[in-house]
Amino acid sequence: MDFRELEAFVWIVKLGSFKHAAEHLHITQPSISERIARLEDFLGEKVLLREHRPVLPTLKGRELFRQAEMMLQERQNAIDNFRAQTDYQGVFRLGVVETIAQSWLPDLLTLLSDRFPAMTIEMEVDGSPGLEKKITTNELDLAFLMGPINHDHIVNRLLCRYPMRFIAHPDFKGMYREDVNDYLEHCVLLSFSRESIPYKDLRFMLAERGIENPRIHCSSSIWTIARLAMAHSGIGVMPPIIVRNELADGRLVKLNLPLHLPNLIFTASWPASYDSWLAEKIARIAHDVAHQAPWGDELAAT
C-alpha cells in the first residue's frame, strides 16, 4: 500500500464517485479503480460501498478515511516544511466575483506575481452561485465570493465586508422629499442578478416596507449597474467601492435615504484537503490586500 491508493480512497469518499475523484487527481477512471482494488486486496476487505450513490465508505472504510486523511496531511506538512515560499510551479485556478475584480484584485495579482514568479493563475470572473458550484466540485482551487459556503469539505475565511448604498446620478438627489416609500415605488432600482444575496436582501427590505412590486432591473455585471446609474436609468444599489472615482468627481452621488441594507460579506473559500496549503496562503495575502490603503477605508465596520 502506498500514498496513491490512500489518496484515491480519500477523494472518492470526499467527492462521492470514482469519476469525480479521477478528474480531481487527473487520472483515468480505470486507474483509480485499480488503486482501490490494490488497497482492498492489501487490507483483505472492502472499504467502499460501490452500489450506493454517492459512493460511501464501509464501517471499516470510515475508520480508514479518518486515518488516511491524517497520514496525507502529515505527509503534506513534511513537504511544506521544505518548500520555499516561491517554489510553486504550475496553474492555480482562482474564481472571483466582479465586485472584487473591479476593486483590489489587480493589487493582489501584482503581489502574487512577485511572491510566486513560477505560478500561472487561471482566473474566472463569475457570480457567487456559479463560483460556489465550481468550488464544491473542485473545478477551482480558491474562490473570492459572497459567502460563506455551507459545505462539509469547504473552508471559509472572512475577506472583507462592504457597505451597500443607494447610488445615482446627481439629478436623483433632488427628487427625494420625505416619503421614502413613494420615492422607491416610482423609481427604477438597479441591482445584482435575481439569484444573488444582494437582490434578495433588497426585495426583503422593500417587502418589509410594504412595497410588493418594485421596479428592479437586474444585471450580473456590477459595472453595468454603475453605467446605467450614470446614464440616469435608475438608482444603483451597490457598494461604493466600485464607483469610488465616479463619486469623487461628482458623476454619481450617494442618496441619503433612511434605509439600511445589509453589508456584502466576502469570503475566501476553498476545498479542505491535505494539499490546500497554497489556497490558504493566498487567502491570507488577499485578506491583507483588501484591508490595506486605499481599500481599507471602504470597509464596513466588523
UniProtKB/TrEMBL annotation:
<dbReference type="Pfam" id="PF00126">
    <property type="entry name" value="HTH_1"/>
</dbReference>
<dbReference type="InterPro" id="IPR036390">
    <property type="entry name" value="WH_DNA-bd_sf"/>
</dbReference>
<keyword id="KW-0805">Transcription regulation</keyword>
<feature type="domain" description="HTH lysR-type">
    <location>
        <begin position="1"/>
        <end position="58"/>
    </location>
</feature>
<dbReference type="InterPro" id="IPR005119">
    <property type="entry name" value="LysR_subst-bd"/>
</dbReference>
<dbReference type="InterPro" id="IPR036388">
    <property type="entry name" value="WH-like_DNA-bd_sf"/>
</dbReference>
<dbReference type="InterPro" id="IPR000847">
    <property type="entry name" value="LysR_HTH_N"/>
</dbReference>
<protein>
    <submittedName>
        <fullName>LysR family transcriptional regulator</fullName>
    </submittedName>
</protein>
<keyword id="KW-0804">Transcription</keyword>
<comment type="similarity">
    <text>Belongs to the LysR transcriptional regulatory family.</text>
</comment>
<keyword id="KW-0238">DNA-binding</keyword>
<dbReference type="Pfam" id="PF03466">
    <property type="entry name" value="LysR_substrate"/>
</dbReference>
